[in-house]
Design a protein that fits this description.
It is a single chain. The chain has 311 residues and is α+β, with helices and mostly antiparallel strands. The chain folds into 2 domains: 100 residues, Beta-Lactamase (2-Layer Sandwich); 196 residues, Histidine kinase-like ATPase, C-terminal domain (Heat Shock Protein 90). The protein contains 8 helices and 13 strands. Strand 3 and strand 4 form a beta hairpin. The relative contact order is 0.09.
């Protein structure tokens, strides 16, 4: 506790008990005669200080929590209760201030809030992953149970790869070029050419993108460019800054097998992932020696300055 004298210039401390000296780390000679503002520091909330000053000016009782600093610079949360003391005539003669270190309580509250945010984020991520898995189970088809299990497993593995990349990046926005490189690195990557400006995608987009790329690569291995000895695939992307979207062009060359036909399950998976998970669309063009897909979807961050192309 402290007692201050508002009748003196700058309302100095005229009495401080031993508990206040132990809390603040100052000696009595360093405290007496000074305004209490010496406890404030760089992160003390100016709004809370303004509330306190208004209460003093209006000579009324007030309670506020302030981030204060001890003599050695250590911050602590101070629950300050201010009360005016008046004489028998009702004139203000002192202010009484009781202070309580509530740092542990504030830390517990912050931890609880952080845990709540974490649980919400984990729930959100789990729901996104489950939505993808549900789509995989619903759309996957095979002639035998063993083949069905293998197909589902390969698609879930694509989601797991994306999850691993997100974990390493701290679940932050990821460059689209990095997502593409990771998706093709185990699939004859020398037969892929990647080219595009700096564009990043949100964490919620990474798993659907991996799944979509998995289907494209699987189709190319079975029916397209990667099934031909000299087949090549180019992946080019661009961005529309004002529209907030990215365009990804997948072009297969060197395959004579590409032909228009009924949509297979891989094609349906690509369509469903783009529309339902990425909020985008796809346009297909059958070429003389391959296939071209133009996929458009929202992008998290778009560079206004033309960045060096990521290859």
């Amino acid at each position: 506790m402290v007692v201050t004298d508002p009748r003196q210039p700058d309302n100095p401390i005229v009495l401080a008990n031993q508990a206040f000296l132990e809390l603040s780390g100052y000696g009595a000679s360093e405290v007496l005669g000074r305004n209490c503002r010496f406890l404030q520091g760089p992160l003390t909330d100016a709004g809370a200080v303004a509330e306190l000053r208004a209460a003093i000016a209006e000579q009324r009782e007030h309670e506020v929590e302030l981030l204060n600093y001890r003599r050695d610079g250590t911050p602590f949360w101070n629950q300050l209760h201010l009360s005016p003391i008046r004489d028998l005539d009702g004139s203000l003669i002192y202010f009484f201030g009781s202070q309580k270190d509530v740092s542990e309580r504030r830390r517990a509250e912050a931890l609880k809030a952080a845990e709540h945010r974490l649980l919400k984020e984990v729930d959100h991520r789990a729901m996104n992953a489950l939505a993808l898995v549900q789509g995989i189970v619903r759309l996957s088809r095979a002639d035998t149970v063993g083949r069905y299990a293998a197909v589902v497993q390969s698609r879930v593995q694509a989601i797991a790869q994306a999850h691993s990349l997100l974990s390493r990046s701290g679940w932050t926005d990821i460059p689209l070029a990095e997502v593409l490189r990771r998706a093709v690195e185990h699939h004859a990557s020398e037969r892929f050419a990647l080219d595009g400006p700096e564009v990043t995608v949100a964490p919620a987009q990474v798993q659907p993108l991996f799944l979509m790329l998995h289907e494209l690569i699987d189709n190319a291995n079975t029916h397209g460019a990667l099934a031909a000895p000299s087949g090549m695939i180019s992946i080019v992307w661009d961005h529309e800054i004002e529209a907030g979207r990215a365009t990804l062009i997948w072009k297969e060359r060197g395959s004579r097998r590409a032909e228009r036909g009924p949509a297979g399950f891989g094609t349906r998976m690509i369509n469903a992932t783009l529309k339902q998970q990425l909020g985008g669309s796809v346009r297909r063009s059958w070429l003389d020696d391959g296939l071209e897909l133009e996929m458009v979807f929202p992008a998290a961050r778009l560079s206004r300055a033309q960045a060096p192309k990521a290859r």
